[in-house]
Specification:
- The structure is a homodimer.
- By secondary structure, chain A is of the alpha/beta class.
- In chain A, the strands form 3 sheets. A 7-stranded mixed beta sheet of chain A has the order 1-7-6-5-4-2-3, with helices on both faces.
- In chain A, α2 packs parallel to α7, α7 crosses α10 and α8 crosses α10.
- Chains A and B meet through α1, α2, α3, α4 and α7 of A and α1, α2, α3, α4 and α7 of B.
């Protein structure tokens, strides 16, 4: 069945599997030992480090293997903050970083540090000059800035080289989380630290990369450990490291051709979905984007139901909708972009995805969305807002308290036609997603969002009918 | 070639290999996703957790998988200290814990905490009542105590159940590092936290265990992460976890019979080595010990040369001698025991070790040791101390400054016969191993060690001839 969630975890690349099997036999011993099994393991480790460093574009002694991309981020940020403690305790991150970056930032704040979140535009992209501005306006000495190479939820590529220049001008190191892009190519620009995760490019789980350029101050916060230059404690996961390095080299060799091919399939989805499914917002930068990833949101749709129905139709995708998150809040990425989060679908194509599978997805999607909408009693396209007979009452209150996304938006859509043009609908809602989705609906529908205020229970969202 | 260093890393168990291969196909997806690949991964993860918890003797929801035994120790100790911050900041460890425990203790001290190291006897064992005494004499509130189940260098089994009782009486949690013993059986007694490492029992690298009993206060110090109850951040290394759990079950099924068999081989080494090689000290508790591990030290031998020659003879062993360590200090375990560290050899037999390989080792060892001794100009057995013609001068100074282990001891042995009984030899040395090995030599040789004092350069060690 078609698996379209490579951005969560890519299936194991055949080269990774092959290398892993070989290294299980050759690389199980302790590479710090002097006997032959140890020396053999050391050779494998050194070769893997050289291959990975070449792909990253750094020196082998600048790169260590960690146990995951998350650990690389945690320990990379903590080490850079520790090494620059004298410079200050301010950290700059973009608002759309991976949760591992934002959680490390939160831990830094809890520990007395300060953090700036650089905003993004509606495509999810950091503006040129935004890092320079954040550096200028920082409340104290800046220890570190972080910017992802490309966004994991909407595929937007960030201006890393520009941000790195802005940081270099202020003598502040830039850490780039390259988890989503490293399989497609090296990160350009003068970054200082870089993190990545092997299972995102088809390597095995259990391996991350942390590169720290010579000259960047770094102080490990972990207890002392002799492995991996003291930057990544614990016995080396050597078979997986060997597989990670081998598969990175392999996917890079195929990257240009496969990126071209997948970009075509993604373009097809980006173009066809809004034609096939009414009331859809395709999100993310239309040009500067990862080749394999596309995200869209469907009005009046419950994300969890949508994922479930797509799974029944044999398509595995993920979603940033609130109902698919354990915290019942929409994805922080969609929130920072200010785009619709309900009925959100992220399609990320693994290497080798068949064109026919994408076409089958495009065939299946309209029926699946329509089915979910029908069960939710969503307004039919062009029905809702065109209700012919407006209530003479120019103001209407919809009580959606206790109702979850997408119900508040559905109820808004159903009544907007009942007030005259210029009239107002106020939606009372206590679901967190409404805060994002009601303004997003207004944007999509050409209605005027007039803001929110606290109500006796929940929040009152005010929408003025414009058309 | 015979690999006798299972205590560093055991070769992959066939069941681990098989399970790993199966899980590469079935368990590469994100277990937190709702689609079928994710659900399948979740089932595998849950089953692995149940199997591991059963082997550990805890509830599945008390156990998380970490990326290594070292990480389990680091994060287990830090979490327990964090959770008991109100109770106090004192930490109790034994002097012979694994370096991961001692390094975490050092980090705790650097952070303002305090630490007691509980001493061991000459067999490497903590005395009954020693933890009770440490708890009584602690300078402040005790947050946590740590005791290994069995020592990784000399095989001595620790009185964990007794220590756990002593801790429970003081309402202090006990963390047991079970890395060396978990494959042989569950840890007895009322422990509170337990750590282990899969590659020690024949599982793959990249998997550790951390069990935290319900009711034990625990506060993760890592940034927030939704995986593994928030106690072990990063994408689950699922294929390796599945392999770890399957192989733990498999080695347990074979444990009783294989322990019996290996215990016989180890007994053979313990008995035969002192018969075959002169001037050897076999260390560790003779009875209460791991079934597969034996350690001995050879006087007048350079550990690195010995390992090298054994490797040439196709035997892979490890050593706690100073010359085999990157810091040029002898193993902290041998130091805490006060036993000879020079020419140290640890033999740890992997499961399935052939009797014939042990016999071949016993055949090869005497010649290898004799060869190393000859090249170092070591005194022949019964030659050195029996020198017929003592110098009339009752005091003699040997300048071994700048000379590395085992040279200072060799030079001492060569001249002791030159002073009359009752006379004194003073050895000037600046090699750290001399501090351990000169007293140990005196103990082995029935000479009187009279202590050390700082010299103009290095340290002066004073030995009085008794025989």
């Amino acid at each position: 069945m078609p698996y379209f969630d490579a951005a969560s975890s890519a299936p194991l690349h055949p080269v990774a599997r092959q290398a892993l099997l070989a290294a299980l036999d050759e690389g199980w011993a302790d590479p710090s030992r002097l006997y032959r099994e140890g020396r053999r393991a050391r050779l494998l480790l050194d070769a893997a480090r050289e291959a990975a460093a070449e792909a990253v574009g750094c020196r082998p002694d600048e790169l260590v293997f960690t146990s995951s991309g998350t650990r690389a981020v945690h320990d990379g940020i903590a080490g850079a903050l520790g090494g620059r403690r004298r410079a200050g305790r301010h950290l700059i991150v973009s608002a759309v970083e991976h949760s591992s970056v934002l959680h490390t930032a939160a831990a830094h704040e809890a520990d007395g540090g300060t953090v700036t979140e650089v905003p993004v535009d509606r495509t999810g992209r950091v503006a040129p000059g935004a890092y320079a501005a954040a550096l200028r306006e920082a409340p104290g000495g800046v220890a570190l800035a972080c910017l992802q190479s490309a966004n994991h939820e909407v595929g937007t590529v960030q201006p890393v080289a520009e941000a790195a220049e802005e940081c270099a001008a202020a003598d502040v190191p830039l850490l780039v989380d390259a988890a989503q892009s490293l399989g497609w190519g090296p990160v350009e620009g003068n970054w200082s630290l870089l993190t990545a995760s092997a299972h995102k490019w088809g390597g095995p789980a259990g391996v991350g990369l942390l590169a720290v350029r010579k000259g960047v101050r770094f102080r490990t916060v972990q207890p002392a450990d002799e492995r991996e230059s003291g930057r990544s404690p614990g016995f080396e996961n050597l078979p997986a490291i060997v597989a990670a390095a081998a598969s990175l080299r392999a996917v890079r060799a195929e990257a240009a051709a496969e990126a071209e091919r997948l970009r075509g399939l993604v373009e097809r989805i980006r173009a066809r979905v809004p034609e096939l499914v009414p009331d859809v917002e395709v999100v993310g930068d239309p040009e500067r984007r990862l080749p394999h990833l596309v995200t869209f949101s469907c009005l009046y749709v419950d994300g969890e139901a949508l994922l479930h129905e797509l799974d029944r139709a044999e398509f595995s995708v993920s979603s940033g909708s609130s109902c698919t998150s354990s915290t019942l809040t929409p994805s922080h990425v969609l929130r920072a972009m200010g785009v619709l989060s309900e009925g959100n679908v992220r399609v990320s194509l693994p290497r080798g995805t068949a064109e026919a599978d994408v076409d089958r997805f495009l065939e299946a999607l309209p029926g699946v969305v329509a089915g979910v909408r029908e069960r939710l009693g969503a307004p039919k396209p062009a029905e809702a807002e065109a209700a012919a007979d407006p209530d003479p009452e120019p103001e209407l209150v919809v009580d959606s308290l206790g109702k979850r996304c997408p119900i508040p938006v559905i109820e808004l859509a159903k009544v907007i036609g009942e007030v005259p043009v210029g009239g107002v609908v106020t939606v009372l809602a206590d679901d967190e997603a409404a805060r994002l989705d009601i303004p997003a609906w207004c944007e999509m529908r050409g209605q005027t969002y007039e803001g929110e205020r606290p109500a006796e229970r929940g929040v009152a969202y005010r929408v003025r009918r414009r058309a």
